[in-house]
């Protein structure tokens, strides 16, 4: 008797994920599944396999087997599968655990679960989210996934050839990895503080809080420049911002997110402090004249 749970990686269209990132993420995912399974049933054994993905995705299949008899093991296997899948859901407030399980499982699988099993799943998911179970491997998985900008989302599926209903978007990776801490202001909005390295696209040359355009590893976005001291220093000449290609800054950013459609969506990005302007001597100044070539020093014969 065996059941499967598949880690689903949503990829940027036309791109392939970094092999090292995928391998380390798969190893961390495997460790997390093993720890969760051991808490629910120490007799389970697990194997991770690579599976072909559809366009724009990659699947890592975890096969769970029990050392006990098939009849006694199936509902425990399904319980573990559901627990892992719900752990990788974007947000559990949209549906009850029971409804989510109904969407995850085939009818014959759902019949194997009693109300007691559903309660066990809900309790296990709560313990995982609070960090009491599998905290380190889950954080490690998100840390690895965050390294590759090609990976846009992660989720879990239990049925063949399906995509997760509400995968966890890339913007959640640093939070779930424990790199940054989300500050929730209301049930439907929150502020996520991060430190980001951004490439300047278009500044606004006014001494006022206006929207500047930057490129981040996730794409091009507008950021409200709210660092008054940085703006003042630029306009008073205390700090230089050369008009060159690929000017990069490191900045402390607050991202305001709203909860809609089962996922947290970034709505506004605010730069509170510019920590550093990175100099890149290799790039040419956009407003400078081309340098004249030096005359050859070789003497004519």
Detailed description of the structure:
By secondary structure, the protein is an alpha+beta fold. The protein is built from 8 helices and 11 strands. It has helices at 19-40, 70-87, 97-104, 107-110, 115-129, 135-146, 173-176, 228-235, and strands at residues 2-11, 44-51, 57-66, 151-157, 168-169, 183-186, 189-202, 211-216, 219-225, 248-260, 263-278. The strands form 2 sheets. It has a 5-stranded antiparallel beta sheet with strand order 2-3-1-4-5. Strands 7-8-9-11-10 form a 5-stranded mixed beta barrel. A hairpin with a 5-residue loop joins strand 2 and strand 3. The longest helix has 22 residues, at 19-40. The model is unreliable at 281-301 (pLDDT under 50).
Shape: elongated
Could you give the order of strands across the largest sheet? 2-3-1-4-5
Mean pLDDT across all residues, rounded? 81
β-sheet strand percentage: 25-35%
């Amino acid at each position: 008797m065996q059941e499967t749970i598949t880690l689903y990686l949503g990829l940027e269209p036309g791109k392939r994920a970094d092999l090292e990132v995928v391998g380390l993420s798969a190893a961390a995912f495997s460790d997390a599944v093993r720890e969760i399974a051991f808490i629910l049933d120490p007799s389970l054994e697990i194997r991770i396999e690579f599976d072909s993905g559809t366009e724009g995705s990659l699947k890592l299949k975890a096969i769970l087997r029990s050392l006990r008899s098939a009849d006694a093991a199936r509902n425990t296997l399904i319980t573990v599968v559901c627990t892992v899948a719900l752990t990788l859901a974007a947000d559990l407030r949209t549906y009850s655990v029971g409804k989510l399980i109904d969407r995850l499982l085939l009818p014959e699988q759902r019949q194997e679960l009693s109300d007691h099993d559903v309660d066990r799943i809900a309790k296990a998911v709560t313990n995982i989210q609070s960090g009491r179970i599998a905290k380190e491997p889950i954080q490690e998985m998100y840390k690895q996934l965050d390294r590759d900008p090609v990976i846009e989302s992660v989720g879990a599926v239990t049925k063949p050839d399906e995509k997760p209903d509400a995968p966890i978007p890339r913007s959640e990776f640093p939070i779930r990895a424990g790199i940054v801490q989300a500050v929730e202001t209301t049930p439907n909005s929150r502020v996520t503080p991060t430190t980001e390295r951004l490439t300047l696209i278009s500044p606004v040359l006014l001494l006022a809080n206006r929207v500047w355009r930057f490129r981040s590893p996730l794409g091009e976005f507008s950021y409200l420049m709210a660092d008054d001291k940085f703006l003042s220093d630029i306009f008073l000449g205390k700090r230089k911002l050369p008009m060159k290609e690929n000017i990069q800054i490191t900045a402390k950013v607050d991202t305001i997110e709203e909860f809609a459609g089962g996922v947290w969506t970034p709505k506004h990005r605010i730069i509170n402090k510019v920590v550093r302007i990175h100099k890149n001597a290799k790039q040419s100044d956009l407003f400078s004249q081309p340098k004249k070539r030096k005359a050859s020093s070789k003497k004519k014969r």
